[in-house]
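Record 1 of the preview.
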Amino acid sequence: MSNSKSALHKPSAISMLNPIGLILISLIMVLPILNIIAQSFSGPVALSAGKVVLWPVQFTVDNYVTVLKQIAIWRAFSVSVIITVFGTLISLIMTASLAYPLSRNEYRERKYILLLVLITMIFHAPLIPNYLLVRNLGLLDSLWALMLPGAISAFNLFVMRSFFLSIPGELIESARIDGAGEIRTIWSIILPLSKPAMATMSIIYSVALWNNYSNALYFINNRALFPLQVKLREFVVTDSSDLANTAGDIANLSPEGLKMAVIVIATIPIMLVYPFLQKHFIKGMLIGSIKS
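->
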């Protein structure tokens, strides 16, 4: 009997290899980030000699000071913040507004609507029809072109609908018996219970909006409306020595260091969102994995 118990508690080879595999995967993901951060804080001589790996060499903050002095960077940063905040709110409202009726049995046409949404997941509209639609709606060269075309994601809609289906129908029926209308029921019962789903959708939508790049190239011609990712491309793809010349300190600045500083500045804000939503995000990722 004791031998059988010890055999049950003896860890298997797979369970022992799991932590090692997770550590290796984490290192593969973290090491490039550490390298970029180290280069952004390193001097031009060390960068040109290729001495920077995971720790800054000839530590300096001149790269960040130079980048943060650029008005174009702050303007692009503000554009990205606006489209991320307001675009996420619009997407959450529109996704929840469509997912809730599609989760109710009394809405008879829900199957046909779900079929149409499913078709959009399989067949994506090409670029030219999308461009013509945005142009005909008068959204070109406006921030609406970066928020409205992708306001509802079909995948997120199905995830949100699955969460609404998991809410007991008795709660909604009891609210209706007490005289609550649909809006009051959604505001007082559905939304408070939907925090995990809302947190999950918020992160997914906000990351997509913050990293919005292709739509800005297609629909925006006014450089004053370029988001941060487009400016990041200009620094990474083009020669950043012009920025160093503008700063008037080309000897103490490296184009490579300036590129890395811009990458870090463009990445940190969206990474700071996750810790505040982590608890709800983990719960939201389990939506539909457990059935009662």
